[in-house]
Protein backbone atom coordinates (compact mmCIF):
# COMPACT_ATOMS: atom_id res chain seq x y z
CA UNK A 1 0.00 0.00 0.00
CA UNK A 2 1.04 3.63 -0.28
CA UNK A 3 2.92 4.67 2.85
CA UNK A 4 3.17 8.43 3.35
CA UNK A 5 6.17 9.73 5.22
CA UNK A 6 8.16 12.94 5.65
CA UNK A 7 11.69 13.19 7.04
CA UNK A 8 10.81 16.50 8.71
CA UNK A 9 9.56 14.17 11.47
CA UNK A 10 13.18 14.14 12.62
CA UNK A 11 13.18 17.88 13.29
CA UNK A 12 11.54 17.16 16.68
CA UNK A 13 13.73 14.76 18.62
CA UNK A 14 13.51 15.24 22.39
CA UNK A 15 16.26 13.52 24.35
CA UNK A 16 14.86 13.40 27.87
CA UNK A 17 11.82 14.06 29.99
CA UNK A 18 10.77 14.30 33.60
CA UNK A 19 8.78 11.18 34.51
CA UNK A 20 7.69 10.21 38.01
CA UNK A 21 10.34 12.34 39.65
CA UNK A 22 13.24 11.27 37.43
CA UNK A 23 14.83 12.53 34.22
CA UNK A 24 14.63 9.63 31.75
CA UNK A 25 15.48 9.11 28.07
CA UNK A 26 12.50 10.33 26.05
CA UNK A 27 10.73 7.27 24.59
CA UNK A 28 9.38 9.22 21.58
CA UNK A 29 12.66 9.45 19.66
CA UNK A 30 13.33 10.17 16.01
CA UNK A 31 14.87 6.75 15.63
CA UNK A 32 11.34 5.32 15.79
CA UNK A 33 10.56 6.99 12.48
CA UNK A 34 13.70 5.68 10.80
CA UNK A 35 13.13 2.11 11.99
CA UNK A 36 9.48 2.13 10.92
CA UNK A 37 10.31 3.57 7.49
CA UNK A 38 13.11 1.08 6.89
CA UNK A 39 10.87 -1.82 7.94
CA UNK A 40 8.44 -1.23 5.07
CA UNK A 41 10.68 0.33 2.39
CA UNK A 42 11.08 -2.81 0.27
CA UNK A 43 7.45 -3.91 0.34
CA UNK A 44 5.30 -0.77 0.34
CA UNK A 45 5.33 2.41 -1.75
CA UNK A 46 6.96 5.18 0.25
CA UNK A 47 5.43 8.45 -0.89
CA UNK A 48 5.93 12.08 0.15
CA UNK A 49 2.79 13.93 1.27
CA UNK A 50 1.29 16.88 -0.58
CA UNK A 51 1.24 20.20 1.26
CA UNK A 52 -2.37 20.77 2.30
CA UNK A 53 -1.57 23.86 4.39
CA UNK A 54 -3.10 24.63 7.76
CA UNK A 55 -6.77 24.28 6.84
CA UNK A 56 -7.02 20.54 7.70
CA UNK A 57 -5.24 21.23 11.01
CA UNK A 58 -7.62 24.09 11.83
CA UNK A 59 -10.57 21.79 11.10
CA UNK A 60 -9.61 19.95 14.31
CA UNK A 61 -7.53 22.34 16.43
CA UNK A 62 -8.25 25.76 17.94
CA UNK A 63 -6.64 28.60 15.98
CA UNK A 64 -5.00 30.08 19.10
CA UNK A 65 -3.36 26.74 19.92
CA UNK A 66 -2.08 26.29 16.36
CA UNK A 67 -0.66 29.84 16.47
CA UNK A 68 0.99 29.04 19.81
CA UNK A 69 2.66 25.92 18.38
CA UNK A 70 3.80 27.79 15.29
CA UNK A 71 5.23 30.76 17.22
CA UNK A 72 6.38 29.28 20.53
CA UNK A 73 9.99 28.60 19.59
CA UNK A 74 10.51 32.07 18.13
CA UNK A 75 9.05 33.55 21.36
CA UNK A 76 11.42 31.63 23.65
CA UNK A 77 13.32 34.84 24.42
CA UNK A 78 10.32 35.97 26.47
CA UNK A 79 11.09 33.21 29.00
CA UNK A 80 13.68 33.60 31.74
CA UNK A 81 16.85 32.10 30.19
CA UNK A 82 14.82 31.11 27.15
CA UNK A 83 17.16 32.61 24.55
CA UNK A 84 19.79 29.96 25.29
CA UNK A 85 17.42 27.03 25.89
CA UNK A 86 17.62 23.76 23.93
CA UNK A 87 13.88 23.35 24.46
CA UNK A 88 11.11 25.14 26.31
CA UNK A 89 8.70 23.57 28.74
CA UNK A 90 6.52 24.66 31.64
CA UNK A 91 6.20 23.08 35.07
CA UNK A 92 2.79 24.69 35.55
CA UNK A 93 -0.31 23.21 33.99
CA UNK A 94 -3.82 24.67 33.84
CA UNK A 95 -6.45 22.77 35.79
CA UNK A 96 -10.18 22.67 35.04
CA UNK A 97 -10.95 25.01 37.98
CA UNK A 98 -8.11 27.40 37.03
CA UNK A 99 -8.32 27.80 33.31
CA UNK A 100 -7.82 31.45 32.24
CA UNK A 101 -5.63 31.68 29.12
CA UNK A 102 -2.78 34.00 30.18
CA UNK A 103 -0.65 36.30 27.99
CA UNK A 104 2.87 35.39 29.11
CA UNK A 105 4.77 32.58 27.45
CA UNK A 106 5.45 30.45 30.54
CA UNK A 107 1.77 30.38 31.44
CA UNK A 108 0.76 29.85 27.82
CA UNK A 109 2.97 26.77 27.56
CA UNK A 110 1.32 25.30 30.64
CA UNK A 111 -2.12 26.26 29.31
CA UNK A 112 -1.54 24.40 26.04
CA UNK A 113 0.25 21.30 27.41
CA UNK A 114 -0.92 18.59 29.77
CA UNK A 115 2.42 17.25 31.02
CA UNK A 116 6.21 17.40 30.67
CA UNK A 117 6.47 15.06 27.68
CA UNK A 118 5.92 17.66 24.95
CA UNK A 119 8.81 20.14 25.01
CA UNK A 120 8.83 22.78 22.28
CA UNK A 121 12.10 22.53 20.34
CA UNK A 122 13.51 24.35 17.30
CA UNK A 123 11.94 21.90 14.84
CA UNK A 124 8.77 20.98 16.70
CA UNK A 125 6.37 22.96 14.53
CA UNK A 126 8.06 21.76 11.33
CA UNK A 127 7.73 18.13 12.47
CA UNK A 128 4.15 18.26 13.69
CA UNK A 129 2.98 20.25 10.66
CA UNK A 130 4.60 17.66 8.37
CA UNK A 131 3.01 14.77 10.29
CA UNK A 132 -0.40 16.35 9.82
CA UNK A 133 0.23 16.61 6.06
CA UNK A 134 1.18 12.92 6.06
CA UNK A 135 -2.14 12.07 7.74
CA UNK A 136 -4.18 14.12 5.28
CA UNK A 137 -2.41 12.62 2.27
CA UNK A 138 -3.02 9.10 3.60
CA UNK A 139 -6.71 9.90 4.14
CA UNK A 140 -7.00 11.04 0.53
CA UNK A 141 -5.11 7.97 -0.69
CA UNK A 142 -7.35 5.65 1.35
CA UNK A 143 -10.32 6.92 -0.62
CA UNK A 144 -8.48 6.34 -3.91
CA UNK A 145 -6.83 2.98 -3.14
CA UNK A 146 -8.99 1.57 -0.36
CA UNK A 147 -6.11 1.73 2.12
CA UNK A 148 -3.06 3.80 2.97
CA UNK A 149 -0.57 4.19 5.79
CA UNK A 150 0.57 7.43 7.44
CA UNK A 151 3.97 7.25 9.12
CA UNK A 152 3.22 10.10 11.50
CA UNK A 153 5.73 11.22 14.06
CA UNK A 154 5.33 12.70 16.63
CA UNK A 155 2.15 10.72 17.34
CA UNK A 156 -1.16 12.52 17.81
CA UNK A 157 -3.96 10.74 19.65
CA UNK A 158 -3.35 12.36 23.07
CA UNK A 159 -3.59 15.89 21.61
CA UNK A 160 -6.87 17.72 22.26
CA UNK A 161 -8.21 20.58 20.15
CA UNK A 162 -6.24 23.06 22.29
CA UNK A 163 -3.51 21.09 24.03
CA UNK A 164 -0.48 18.85 23.65
CA UNK A 165 0.31 15.92 25.97
CA UNK A 166 1.51 12.34 26.01
CA UNK A 167 4.20 13.02 23.34
CA UNK A 168 1.48 14.42 20.99
CA UNK A 169 0.97 17.94 19.58
CA UNK A 170 -1.42 17.71 16.62
CA UNK A 171 -3.98 14.92 16.51
CA UNK A 172 -3.06 13.23 13.22
CA UNK A 173 -5.78 10.56 13.50
CA UNK A 174 -8.45 13.18 14.16
CA UNK A 175 -7.13 15.28 11.26
CA UNK A 176 -7.35 12.23 8.98
CA UNK A 177 -10.90 11.48 10.22
CA UNK A 178 -12.02 15.05 9.64
CA UNK A 179 -10.50 14.90 6.15
CA UNK A 180 -12.44 11.71 5.39
CA UNK A 181 -15.54 13.39 6.81
CA UNK A 182 -15.39 15.95 3.98
CA UNK A 183 -16.22 13.07 1.60
CA UNK A 184 -18.40 10.81 3.78
CA UNK A 185 -21.24 11.71 6.14
CA UNK A 186 -20.04 9.21 8.78
CA UNK A 187 -16.50 8.21 9.68
CA UNK A 188 -15.17 5.87 12.38
CA UNK A 189 -11.89 5.90 14.31
CA UNK A 190 -10.62 2.64 15.79
CA UNK A 191 -7.74 3.28 18.20
CA UNK A 192 -5.70 0.18 19.09
CA UNK A 193 -2.79 1.94 20.80
CA UNK A 194 -2.08 0.57 24.29
CA UNK A 195 -3.02 3.99 25.67
CA UNK A 196 -6.52 5.41 25.51
CA UNK A 197 -6.99 7.86 22.63
CA UNK A 198 -8.11 10.60 24.98
CA UNK A 199 -7.38 13.49 22.62
CA UNK A 200 -9.39 11.95 19.79
CA UNK A 201 -12.23 11.22 22.19
CA UNK A 202 -12.10 14.85 23.35
CA UNK A 203 -12.09 16.27 19.83
CA UNK A 204 -15.20 14.32 18.76
CA UNK A 205 -17.01 13.83 22.08
CA UNK A 206 -20.05 15.95 21.18
CA UNK A 207 -20.25 14.73 17.58
CA UNK A 208 -22.57 12.06 16.25
CA UNK A 209 -20.99 11.87 12.79
CA UNK A 210 -17.60 10.50 13.88
CA UNK A 211 -17.62 7.28 15.92
CA UNK A 212 -14.57 6.85 18.17
CA UNK A 213 -13.70 3.48 19.67
CA UNK A 214 -10.54 2.93 21.73
CA UNK A 215 -9.15 -0.42 22.91
CA UNK A 216 -6.43 0.09 25.52
CA UNK A 217 -4.91 -0.94 28.83
CA UNK A 218 -7.08 -0.04 31.83
CA UNK A 219 -6.27 3.60 32.66
CA UNK A 220 -7.05 3.25 36.39
CA UNK A 221 -3.30 3.14 37.06
CA UNK A 222 -1.91 3.89 33.61
CA UNK A 223 -1.67 6.87 31.27
CA UNK A 224 -3.86 8.84 30.52
CA UNK A 225 -5.45 8.13 33.97
CA UNK A 226 -8.24 10.74 33.68
CA UNK A 227 -10.08 9.33 30.66
CA UNK A 228 -10.59 6.03 28.90
CA UNK A 229 -13.28 4.40 31.04
CA UNK A 230 -16.17 2.37 29.70
CA UNK A 231 -18.83 4.80 30.93
CA UNK A 232 -17.56 7.62 28.68
CA UNK A 233 -20.04 7.36 25.80
CA UNK A 234 -20.18 10.90 24.38
CA UNK A 235 -22.56 13.75 25.14
CA UNK A 236 -25.29 15.60 23.25
CA UNK A 237 -25.25 14.66 19.57
CA UNK A 238 -22.22 12.49 20.38
CA UNK A 239 -24.01 10.29 22.90
CA UNK A 240 -23.42 6.70 21.84
CA UNK A 241 -20.67 7.68 19.37
CA UNK A 242 -17.78 7.12 21.77
CA UNK A 243 -16.81 3.76 23.15
CA UNK A 244 -13.95 2.70 25.39
CA UNK A 245 -12.86 -0.89 25.83
CA UNK A 246 -10.28 -0.98 28.65
CA UNK A 247 -8.49 -4.33 29.03
CA UNK A 248 -6.73 -5.77 32.09
CA UNK A 249 -2.98 -5.16 32.03
CA UNK A 250 -1.11 -8.12 30.60
CA UNK A 251 -3.94 -9.09 28.23
CA UNK A 252 -2.59 -11.01 25.24
CA UNK A 253 -3.80 -11.68 21.71
CA UNK A 254 -7.11 -13.41 22.48
CA UNK A 255 -8.87 -10.68 24.52
CA UNK A 256 -7.33 -7.92 22.37
CA UNK A 257 -8.52 -9.53 19.13
CA UNK A 258 -11.94 -10.22 20.64
CA UNK A 259 -12.19 -6.52 21.55
CA UNK A 260 -11.30 -5.59 17.95
CA UNK A 261 -14.02 -7.95 16.63
CA UNK A 262 -16.46 -6.37 19.07
CA UNK A 263 -15.45 -2.87 17.99
CA UNK A 264 -15.83 -3.76 14.31
CA UNK A 265 -19.37 -4.99 14.94
CA UNK A 266 -20.14 -1.57 16.41
CA UNK A 267 -18.49 0.12 13.46
CA UNK A 268 -20.57 -1.99 11.03
CA UNK A 269 -23.75 -0.90 12.83
CA UNK A 270 -22.64 2.75 12.56
CA UNK A 271 -22.12 2.20 8.80
CA UNK A 272 -19.35 4.74 8.19
CA UNK A 273 -18.05 5.53 4.72
CA UNK A 274 -14.41 5.35 5.86
CA UNK A 275 -12.24 4.28 8.79
CA UNK A 276 -9.16 5.60 10.55
CA UNK A 277 -7.06 3.06 12.45
CA UNK A 278 -4.97 4.77 15.13
CA UNK A 279 -2.18 2.22 15.08
CA UNK A 280 -0.24 2.08 18.31
CA UNK A 281 2.34 -0.67 18.20
CA UNK A 282 2.89 -0.18 21.94
CA UNK A 283 0.27 -2.87 22.59
CA UNK A 284 3.19 -5.22 21.89
CA UNK A 285 4.36 -7.61 24.59
CA UNK A 286 7.85 -6.23 23.97
CA UNK A 287 7.12 -2.52 24.16
CA UNK A 288 9.20 -0.76 26.83
CA UNK A 289 6.28 1.33 28.11
CA UNK A 290 3.43 -1.01 27.11
CA UNK A 291 0.99 -2.83 29.37
CA UNK A 292 -0.58 -5.41 27.06
CA UNK A 293 0.98 -8.57 25.59
CA UNK A 294 0.14 -8.62 21.89
CA UNK A 295 2.40 -10.74 19.65
CA UNK A 296 3.49 -10.09 16.07
CA UNK A 297 0.98 -12.72 14.95
CA UNK A 298 -1.67 -10.87 16.94
CA UNK A 299 -0.95 -7.65 15.05
CA UNK A 300 -1.18 -9.49 11.72
CA UNK A 301 -4.51 -11.05 12.70
CA UNK A 302 -5.82 -7.66 13.81
CA UNK A 303 -4.94 -6.21 10.41
CA UNK A 304 -6.70 -9.09 8.60
CA UNK A 305 -9.80 -8.61 10.74
CA UNK A 306 -9.92 -4.87 10.15
CA UNK A 307 -9.31 -5.29 6.41
CA UNK A 308 -12.28 -7.66 6.19
CA UNK A 309 -14.55 -4.78 7.25
CA UNK A 310 -14.04 -3.58 3.67
CA UNK A 311 -13.92 0.13 4.47
CA UNK A 312 -11.56 2.67 2.91
CA UNK A 313 -8.99 2.81 5.70
CA UNK A 314 -6.25 5.24 6.68
CA UNK A 315 -3.84 3.56 9.08
CA UNK A 316 -2.23 6.34 11.13
CA UNK A 317 0.89 5.65 13.19
CA UNK A 318 0.49 6.45 16.88
CA UNK A 319 2.73 4.97 19.62
CA UNK A 320 5.14 2.06 19.65
CA UNK A 321 8.55 2.52 21.20
CA UNK A 322 12.09 1.36 20.60
CA UNK A 323 12.40 -2.41 20.83
CA UNK A 324 13.43 -5.18 18.49
CA UNK A 325 9.80 -6.06 17.70
CA UNK A 326 8.73 -2.52 16.72
CA UNK A 327 9.61 -2.56 12.98
CA UNK A 328 8.59 -6.22 12.64
CA UNK A 329 5.14 -5.47 14.03
CA UNK A 330 4.55 -2.62 11.59
CA UNK A 331 5.58 -4.79 8.70
CA UNK A 332 3.24 -7.53 9.92
CA UNK A 333 0.29 -5.12 10.04
CA UNK A 334 0.77 -3.63 6.57
CA UNK A 335 1.61 -6.95 4.89
CA UNK A 336 -1.39 -8.68 6.47
CA UNK A 337 -3.69 -5.83 5.57
CA UNK A 338 -2.58 -5.94 1.93
CA UNK A 339 -2.82 -9.73 1.80
CA UNK A 340 -6.37 -9.64 3.17
CA UNK A 341 -7.33 -7.19 0.42
CA UNK A 342 -6.09 -9.67 -2.17
ZN1 LIG B 1 0.57 4.68 23.24
Automatic annotation (TrEMBL):
Domain of life: Bacteria
Keyword Hydrolase on entry: yes
Cited InterPro entries: HDACs (IPR000286), His_deacetylse_dom (IPR023801), His_deacetylse_dom_sf (IPR037138), Ureohydrolase_dom_sf (IPR023696)
Cofactor(s) required, per the database record: Zn(2+)
BP term (GO), one: epigenetic regulation of gene expression
Sorted UniProt keywords: Hydrolase, Metal-binding, Zinc
Every Histone deacetylase domain range: 26-335
Pfam families: Hist_deacetyl (PF00850)
Keyword Metal-binding on entry: yes
CDD domains xrefs: HDAC_classII_APAH
UniProt protein name: Acetylpolyamine amidohydrolase
Amino acid sequence: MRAFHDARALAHDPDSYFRRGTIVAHPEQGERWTLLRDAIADAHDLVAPADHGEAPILAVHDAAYVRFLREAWSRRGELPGGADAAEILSGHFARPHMSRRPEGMLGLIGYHTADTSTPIRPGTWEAVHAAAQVAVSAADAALEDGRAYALCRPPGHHAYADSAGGFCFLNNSAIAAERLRTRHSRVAVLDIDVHHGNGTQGVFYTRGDILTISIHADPADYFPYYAGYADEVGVGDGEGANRNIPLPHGSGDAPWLAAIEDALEGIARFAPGALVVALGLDASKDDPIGALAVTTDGFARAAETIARAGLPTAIVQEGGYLCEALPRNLRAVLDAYDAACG
